[in-house]
Specification:
The complex is a heterodimer.
Chain A: E1 2-11, E2 14-24, E3 29-34, H1 40-47, E4 55-60, E5 63-64, H2 72-76, E6 79-82, H3 94-104, H4 110-123, H5 139-151, E7 157-161, H6 169-184, E8 188-192, H7 196-202, E9 205-210, E10 213-218, H8 220-226, H9 230-239
Parallel strand pairs in A: 3-8, 3-9, 6-7, 7-8
Antiparallel strand pairs in A: 1-2, 1-4, 4-5, 9-10
Chain B: H1 3-8, H2 13-45, H3 58-62, H4 65-78, H5 82-93, H6 102-128, H7 131-139, H8 144-174, H9 186-197, H10 201-232
The chains are: A alpha/beta, B mainly alpha.
Bound molecules: adenosine-5'-triphosphate (ATP) and magnesium ion.
Residues 40-41, 161-162 of chain A line the site of magnesium ion (MG).
Chain lengths: 240, 233
């Protein structure tokens, strides 16, 4: 579903990704861990080309994102992204936030788009908030709306960049529960998170990013408990 | 002569009344033209069109002709007096078209002038919008233009609204120089009374008071808009 070959990203002299090779199969739930500034966000943002790689190639569902001839607007519809800061559109109601892309990008009729939007709201348990503005929602509700907005495009892949890091602790669980339920539907996911219980219970695979490289890649059990890498060991030791 | 006689004797108040009409019409037309031009210029400033992206020189690669053009426009307009622009419009651009109503010419001149300031205001509004908004829109598949049209601009214009009203107030005062091309606006109306009665105090203060009344009114509107916006955030 996702294939990455020798991905490099530099910000000026700052060489953030130093040759990432990665292949993610359909239906995998990949949790990305690593120290702060290790390039986790950059990796996710390169996959949907919000950040343009310095070199390397990326394919999503057989379409090469890094090929200049690719219609990125179209390709991005297959990649939903959920941000740490939610990034809901404050001037639109919840429903309009979700309907915008189905109407303007997929060119669906408003009736059809509304149906899809309400179904997406059902999936995150917020149908009753359809006509509210984002400023009237709690952090957890905002993030669930953001997830519904991504879902309404019916993407092949969902990318989550620290979806619970900006939330008050009591709201983390409601958002994780939604993501967990989505994971069970078989959609392909990459999730950057610091929530260890989520990584342990939901991930089919954990990547550990350090110094711009994937230094550990495998089943949660193996990465968390049996890594031979001192950096990975000390990362988990510090958590427990 | 007392003040009442100076201002109202022989129907002299009509100088002010008709002048007020001209001033308001001119301000409204110029504001509308300025908003349209300003919006277009602000969008051009955001243009990412780089026709020479394939060239060898880094400078040429980065060259954005539309943004460059827009910046030349705002630099020239903001760097020269409105009166000079008005006179150029009247004597040079329309120099050989004496049939065109002065109101149109002046509206155009002040509209073009205001457009540069409006563009800067809207640019500020656009740049104040969080990058995350653009990233969210692009990640959903919206094009650059759709992102601008449906996500960035509505928020940017809302943010800019108080400053845009303030620009309208500035424009109202700036139009007081149209007497230079022989238009009988409020200022020129006061001048006419001044000449007829050979007194300065009453006519000039009458004009000043009317200007002040109008700007106070619009400033009130602006404050109210500001409060509304803050409440809706
Ligand atoms: N737009 C940018 N411009 C310049 N440098 C950037 C930019 N975005 C990220 N960086 C730098 O790239 C490096 C990696 O950042 P990134 O956000 O990918 O790390 P991360 O692993 O997601 O960290 P965190 O856990 O703090 O979110 C950091 O050194 C950061 O300063
Ligand atoms: Mg990050």
């Amino acid at each position: 579903m996702i294939d990455i070959k020798q991905l490099h990203k530099k910000y000026g002299k700052n060489h953030v990704l130093r040759g990432i090779d990665l292949s993610v199969d359909r239906g995998e739930v990949v949790v990305v861990l690593g120290s702060s500034g290790g390039g986790k966000s950059t990796l996710l943002r390169c996959i949907n080309m919000i950040e343009v790689p310095t070199s390397g190639r990326i394919w999503v569902d057989g379409i090469e994102m890094t090929d200049p001839a690719t219609d990125l607007n179209k390709a991005r519809t297959e990649l939903g992204m959920v941000f740490q800061q939610f990034n809901l559109f404050p001037h639109m109601t919840v429903l309009d936030n979700i309907m915008l892309a189905p109407v303007k990008v997929r060119k669906l009729t408003r009736t059809k788009a509304k149906k899809i939007a309400l179904a997406a709201l059902d999936q995150v348990g917020l149908r009753d908030k359809a006509n509210d503005y984002p400023s009237h929602l709690s952090g957890g509700q905002k993030q669930r709306v953001a997830i519904a907005r991504a879902l309404a495009m019916q993407p092949q892949v969902l990318l989550f960049d620290e979806p619970t890091s900006a939330l008050d602790p009591e709201m983390v669980d409601e958002v994780l529960a939604v993501i967990k339920r989505l994971a069970e539907t078989g959609i392909t996911m990459m999730v950057v998170t610091h929530e260890m219980s989520f990584a342990r219970d939901v991930a089919s695979r954990i990547l550990f990013l350090d110094g711009g490289l994937i230094i550990e890649d495998g089943a949660p059990e193996k990465v968390i408990n049996h890594s031979s890498h001192p950096k990975v060991q000390s990362f988990f030791a510090a958590l427990s | 002569m007392n003040a009442v006689e100076i201002l109202f004797g022989d129907g002299r108040y009509l100088f002010l009344w008709r002048g007020l009409e001209v001033t308001l019409l001119l301000t409204v037309f110029a504001t509308v033209i300025g908003l349209v031009i300003g919006l277009v210029i602000a969008l051009l400033q955001q243009s990412e069109w780089r026709p020479l992206a394939a060239s060898k020189s880094l400078r040429l690669q980065q060259w954005r002709p539309l943004a460059g053009l827009a910046n030349i426009y705002t630099t020239i307009i903001r760097g020269t007096p409105a009166l000079v622009q008005l006179l150029i419009m009247y004597y040079v651009v329309f120099g050989s078209y004496r049939g065109v109503p002065k109101l149109w010419i002046a509206s155009l001149a002040f509209g073009i002038n205001s457009g540069a300031y409006v563009a800067e205001i809207i640019r500020g509004g656009i740049e104040s919008i969080d990058r995350g908004q653009v990233e969210a829109a692009r990640s959903l598949g919206l094009s650059r233009w759709q992102t601008m049209r449906y996500v960035v601009l509505p928020q940017a214009l809302k943010q800019s609204l108080p400053s845009l009203i303030s620009e309208g107030i500035t424009l109202l005062k700036e139009t007081s120089v149209v007497g230079w091309i022989g238009m009988n606006d409020l200022m020129r109306g006061a001048d006419n009374i001044r000449f007829q009665t050979a007194t300065a105090f009453e006519s000039l203060f009458a004009a000043a008071l009317i200007y002040l009344g109008l700007t106070t009114l619009f400033t009130r509107v602006m404050r109210r808009v500001e409060r509304r916006l803050r409440a809706s955030d």
